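Supplementary Methods. Inverse-folding protocol.

Structures were first reduced to a discrete structure-token string of length 1242. This string, shown here, constituted the complete conditioning input.
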């Protein structure tokens, strides 16, 4: 009821008021009371206070609130009191009453948390004389949070405490429909040593007491306690009932022994069946007969419990104890728990499911026989949801001599099982402990030889508990902790751990006073925390020395010292409510342990001083390898508050950036040096700052030729910027001065009326790799107008570069109205498209509107006469002209170009400017000449389409192309001019050698496809005029192929079949009987050509077969002959042994031609005369015959033959379809011929 009485009694704390205060001065009196009684976390509101100067004071309404709101309300409070009694140190109240009291919850009492200073031990001061004649509350409402259920009650009574006597009477009754009452009458008189008490508590079912005790069924409960009499003959009785049945009853008595009146005797006898009051599962523990009996006496300095017995179904404790001068002279206590048959017993303790198999306890001592004492206790099969102990033993023995006890105790716990896996790993399976102890009257308790052990950890040493007048009591440890394997504690620490540790702790701890003075000395061996930056530093032995103390002045850490082979840390700290300070110094032997590339020692110094309650001054200095350093001097304001701020300076020196770029894991190489000086103020949580900075760099390089050239030499950057809580970052000044680049920015006004001017200049555009020399400059101005920036800027440079930007841009970039006009050299793109090269100029007329994005760009980009070189394709595009029109989120392309080798192309169609970049492009090719002098020459015509998203790779390239006259040249020599030795490995290879081998293609490198893959669906058709020539072969083919797959994995399929052809060997013409060019998944076509002849019962064949880049030549015959014999028969019609020397020379020439090392006279003439076919032969009679062939249209081929005998013939072929040909013939003697031929390949 203290939360009910406190606000009532608060009304009695009135102080004498100034005589000028009048009773009707309502505002002044209420304000005075509210200010006097309120405090941090407690706000009192008083309405209607009257009668401050009379004996009857009243308050219409009083509320008390904490940080969560009002928790108690009283209405119509009245205090009738005697003010003059206060002068005698007494509080006399005739009546203290309230009509209503509403206690919705208990107050939230705030805590300021611990302070660095120890507060000492103190008891609260209590009032000593109170007399309240009448106390009344008509209606009190208690919310559910107060007692667990909402109740309403009334209270009446009286209270008196004065002159060594006290009395109270209370009558509390529930008023909410549930019958319940507490009636208490009690008094005590010191002089007569008489006491009387009469207590009745009763309530109906579902009452407060049954609910709070969780009685099964929450039955009606009645508790009665009554007793009276002098202390020489006092007796009392009590009964506890539920559901109208008595559950527990007993008697208590206190009096004088009739036989020996000098002894005061006492007794107690309680018993009953409490099983209905407990959950059914606990009835096996209590049984139906629970009893407690005790009797004893007190005589001068002796108190004896002669007989004590507590029994239930599963518990039995009995014994006797005698204390003389507060020290035991007789102890004989024993107890047991369990049923004796091994059946587990469920214990009535907090936590469900706690069981025990059996427990025994025995403590004995009788100084009449011996000063010895013994203790024995055992526990078996203890089980709970969190712990299982199969066997635990506790043993002790020693002596009690007078007022001194000493002895030894030990315990063991085997087979320990803990449900929490991390705790189980830390504790292990077995625990044991032992110690000796001694304690005497007015002496400290000493624990000597303390030894607590687990599997590989221990706590050993001494411990003293002493009583101190000032600090209550203290603990004085002198102990050592040791752990051989820290990994067992990794789970508890939620941190990977390994290694070993030891720690010695000595000093004093005073818990009640909150003070301590301790010394820690120890260390770790090979400590590892799975932290790459820390573990190398802690390898080996690391020693710790720490002194820590807390007293009324604060907390002191001195010394603080950590020493390891690779690092050291020293310092001190003093923590106070005001005036704290700290100093730290650290050193690393070699930074290479933390980061490769950093070599040498590093040091750090830190000092911190508390200037005021909310301000700290912090300085720090870091020194690293290569003269790197960091210096800071800052003031921290409100570092632990809601809005911390920092003011100060910082300076960084990095003469060599390369090793620190590796430390920062930058994706690019970084070399050079830099320095930075920073001054400013900031509020990090509010994202507010005002800074100025100066940075200097020297020869900064990132491995990019253009960027490195721009940052060469010394560059200085000066910057001033600010940001408020409601505005973006505002650059007030920016000045860049470099060897190649200069820039400046200056601003005036606040953010709402900012006026910013800027200039920039690049000394020579040649540094950009665009092939243009001359300076590039830019200047402009941006003014804030309303919520928009008005921008006007110009850019000018060589090669006609000129751009102007005008318009407005919202400060939050949500909208814009900008125009960009001018011209730029296309060669600016060359560094991005190397090795390709673009020349020409682009004229821009663009506009950017809201909302920002590519879709908001409109206008046109035009070019004329531009050129693009494609060295890897051995092509060049000239006279590139056209436009790109931007509108409605699309770019419409219309570009034409002329390849340098001949032909025309046109690219047109729209491309969306959204994230997918969908294209619907068409590419028209007309007579595009493609040539590789060593491999092929052709012309190409057709129409291609590109449809779909370009960025995601969903686009598809499709269409058809037709080849014009095509010549495929068989490599003159398939054997390489150089050789690579298999298995050859280069050691210590110079860079120049490796570069040459890379250029020569002797180093294989994997090239990953770049960019999205586009699907391919292309058809290439060439019905005829595909000529294959080389190595004596001259053939015409026709056919088609399909290109599928993707742009990352091109898959060509198809073939070209023989139309006509022959093979030339030293004037001998062999007609081809078989021929094809086939592509199957690779661009190096597969060739197969076969020429056959029959001489003197021998059929000979010449076969050229294999990839076009390296075909294989074979000579075969039937019957089988060596290749040189076959070649001799083909050339001369005789075997090798019968040929003449001149024929042998011709044979060697034929071999040279077939191997690719010989010349071809007719081939040169055919090219010079622009013929498709030219052949000169001799017949069996020695007559010479010449034949020339020419396509006069795409499907008409004519051939003229003439010999030395004057015979001429004209053949005409008309290709009607791929398989149907019409042929006509006319010779000089008037003979003609006409035929229709159907030809198919199988």
């Amino acid at each position: 009821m203290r939360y009910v009485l406190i606000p009532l009694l608060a009304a009695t704390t009135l102080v004498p008021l100034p005589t000028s205060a009048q009773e009707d001065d309502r505002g002044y009196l209420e304000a005075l009371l509210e200010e006097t009684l309120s405090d941090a976390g407690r706000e009192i509101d008083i309405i209607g206070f009257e009668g401050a100067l009379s004996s009857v004071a009243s308050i219409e309404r009083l509320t008390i609130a904490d940080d969560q709101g009002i928790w108690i309300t009283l209405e119509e409070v009245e205090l009738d009191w005697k003010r003059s009694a206060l002068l005698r140190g007494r509080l006399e109240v005739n009546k203290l009453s309230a009509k209503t009291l509403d206690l919705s919850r208990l107050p939230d009492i705030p805590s300021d948390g611990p302070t660095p200073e120890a507060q000492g031990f103190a008891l609260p001061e209590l009032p000593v004389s109170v007399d309240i004649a009448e106390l009344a509350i008509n209606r009190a409402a208690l919310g559910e949070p107060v007692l667990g259920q909402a109740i309403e009650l009334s209270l009446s009574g009286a209270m008196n405490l004065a002159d060594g006597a006290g009395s109270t009477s209370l009558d509390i009754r529930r008023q909410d429909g549930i019958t319940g009452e507490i009636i208490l009458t009690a008094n005590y008189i010191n002089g007569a040593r008489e006491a009387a008490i009469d207590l009745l508590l009763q309530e109906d079912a579902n009452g407060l007491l049954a609910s709070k005790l969780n009685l099964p069924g929450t039955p009606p409960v009645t508790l009665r306690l009554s007793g009276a009499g002098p202390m020489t003959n006092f007796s009392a009785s009590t009964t506890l009932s539920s559901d109208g049945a008595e559950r527990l009853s007993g008697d208590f008595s206190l009096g004088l022994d009739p036989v020996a009146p000098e002894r005061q005797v006492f007794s107690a006898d309680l018993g009953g069946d409490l099983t209905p009051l407990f959950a059914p599962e606990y009835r096996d523990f209590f049984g139906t007969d629970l009893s407690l009996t005790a009797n004893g006496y007190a005589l001068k300095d002796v108190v004896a419990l002669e007989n004590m017995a507590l029994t239930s179904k599963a518990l039995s404790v009995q014994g006797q104890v005698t204390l003389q001068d507060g020290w035991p002279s007789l102890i004989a206590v024993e107890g047991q728990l369990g049923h004796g048959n091994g059946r587990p017993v469920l214990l009535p303790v907090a936590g469900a499911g706690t069981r025990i198999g059996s427990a025994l306890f025995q403590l004995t001592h009788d100084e009449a026989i011996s000063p010895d004492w013994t203790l024995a206790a055992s526990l078996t099969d203890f089980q709970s949801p969190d712990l299982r102990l199969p066997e635990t033993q506790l043993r002790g023995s020693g002596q009690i001599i007078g007022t001194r006890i000493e002895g030894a105790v030990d315990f063991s716990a085997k087979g320990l099982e803990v449900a929490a896996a991390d705790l189980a790993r830390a504790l292990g399976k077995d625990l044991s402990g032992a110690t000796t102890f001694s304690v005497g009257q007015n002496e400290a308790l000493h624990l000597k030889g303390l030894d607590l052990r687990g599997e590989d950890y221990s706590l050993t040493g001494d411990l003293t508990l002493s009583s101190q007048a000032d600090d209550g009591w203290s603990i004085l440890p002198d102990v050592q902790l040791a752990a051989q394997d820290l990994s067992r504690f990794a789970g508890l620490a939620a941190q990977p751990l390994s290694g070993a540790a030891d720690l010695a702790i000595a000093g004093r701890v005073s818990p009640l006073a909150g003070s301590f003075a301790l010394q820690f000395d120890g260390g770790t061996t090979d400590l590892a925390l799975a932290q790459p930056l820390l573990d190398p530093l802690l390898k080996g032995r690391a020693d710790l020395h720490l002194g820590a103390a807390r007293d009324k002045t604060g907390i002191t850490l001195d010394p603080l010292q950590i020493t390891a082979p690779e690092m050291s840390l020293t310092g001190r700290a003093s923590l106070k409510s005001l005036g704290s300070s700290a100093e730290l110094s650290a050193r690393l032997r070699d930074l290479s342990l933390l980061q490769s590339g950093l070599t040498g020692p590093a040091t750090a110094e830190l000092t911190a001083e508390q200037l005021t309650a909310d301000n700290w001054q912090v300085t720090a200095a870091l020194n690293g390898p290569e003269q790197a350093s960091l210096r800071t001097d800052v003031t921290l304001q409100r570092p632990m508050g809601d809005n911390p701020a920092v003011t100060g300076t910082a300076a960084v020196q990095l003469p060599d950036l390369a090793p620190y770029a590796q430390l920062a894991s930058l994706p690019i190489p970084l070399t050079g040096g830099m320095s930075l000086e920073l001054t400013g103020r900031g509020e990090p949580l509010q994202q507010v700052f005002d800074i100025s900075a100066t940075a200097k760099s020297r020869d900064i390089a990132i491995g990019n030729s253009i960027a490195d050239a721009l940052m060469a030499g010394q560059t200085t950057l000066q910057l001033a910027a600010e940001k408020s809580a409601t505005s973006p970052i505002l650059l007030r000044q920016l000045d860049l001065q470099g060897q190649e680049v200069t820039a400046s920015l200056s601003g005036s006004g606040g953010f709402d009326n900012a006026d910013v001017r800027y200039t920039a200049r690049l000394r020579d555009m040649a540094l950009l790799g665009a092939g243009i020399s001359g300076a590039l400059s830019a200047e402009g101005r941006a003014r804030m107008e309303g919520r928009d920036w008005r921008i006007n800027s110009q850019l000018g440079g060589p090669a006609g570069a000129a751009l102007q930007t005008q318009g407005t841009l919202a400060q939050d970039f949500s909208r814009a109205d900008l125009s960009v006009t001018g011209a730029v050299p296309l060669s600016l793109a060359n560094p991005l498209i190397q090795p390709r090269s673009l020349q020409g100029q682009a004229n821009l007329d663009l506009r950017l509107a809201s909302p920002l994005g590519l879709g908001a760009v409109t206008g046109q980009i035009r070019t004329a006469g531009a050129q693009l070189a494609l060295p890897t394709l051995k092509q060049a595009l000239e006279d590139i002209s056209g436009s790109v029109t931007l509108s409605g989120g699309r770019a419409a392309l219309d570009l034409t170009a002329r390849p340098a080798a001949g032909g025309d192309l046109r690219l047109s169609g729209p491309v969306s400017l959204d994230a997918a970049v969908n294209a619907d492009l068409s590419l028209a090719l007309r007579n595009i000449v493609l040539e590789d002098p060593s491999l092929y020459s052709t012309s190409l015509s057709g129409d291609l389409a590109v449809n779909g998203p370009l960025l995601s790779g969903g686009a598809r390239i499709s269409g058809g192309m037709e080849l014009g006259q095509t010549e495929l040249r068989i490599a003159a020599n398939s054997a390489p001019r150089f050789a690579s030795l298999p298995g050859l490995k280069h050691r210590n290879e110079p860079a120049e050698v490796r570069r040459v081998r890379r250029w020569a293609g002797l180093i294989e490198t994997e090239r990953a496809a770049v960019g999205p893959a586009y699907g391919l669906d292309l058809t290439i058709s060439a019905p005829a005029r595909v000529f294959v020539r080389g190595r004596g072969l001259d053939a015409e083919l026709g056919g088609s192929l399909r290109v599928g797959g993707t742009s990352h994995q091109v898959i060509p399929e198809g073939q070209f079949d023989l139309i006509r052809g022959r093979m030339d060997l030293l004037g001998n013409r062999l007609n081809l009987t078989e021929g094809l060019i086939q592509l199957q998944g690779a661009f190096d076509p597969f060739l197969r050509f076969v020429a056959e002849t029959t001489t003197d019962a021998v059929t000979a064949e010449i076969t050229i077969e294999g990839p076009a880049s390296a075909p294989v030549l074979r000579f075969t015959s039937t019957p089988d002959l060596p290749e040189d014999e076959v070649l001799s028969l083909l050339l001369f019609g005789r075997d090798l042994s019968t040929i003449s020397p001149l024929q042998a020379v011709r044979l060697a020439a034929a071999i040279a031609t077939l191997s690719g090392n010989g010349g071809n006279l007719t081939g040169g003439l055919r090219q010079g005369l622009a013929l498709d076919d030219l052949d000169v032969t001799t017949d069996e009679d020695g007559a010479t015959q010449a034949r020339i062939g020419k396509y006069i249209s795409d499907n008409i081929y004519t051939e003229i033959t003439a010999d030395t005998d004057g015979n001429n013939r004209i053949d005409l072929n008309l290709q009607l379809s791929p398989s149907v040909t019409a042929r006509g013939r006319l010779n000089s003697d008037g003979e003609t011929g006409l035929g229709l031929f159907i030809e198919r390949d199988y």
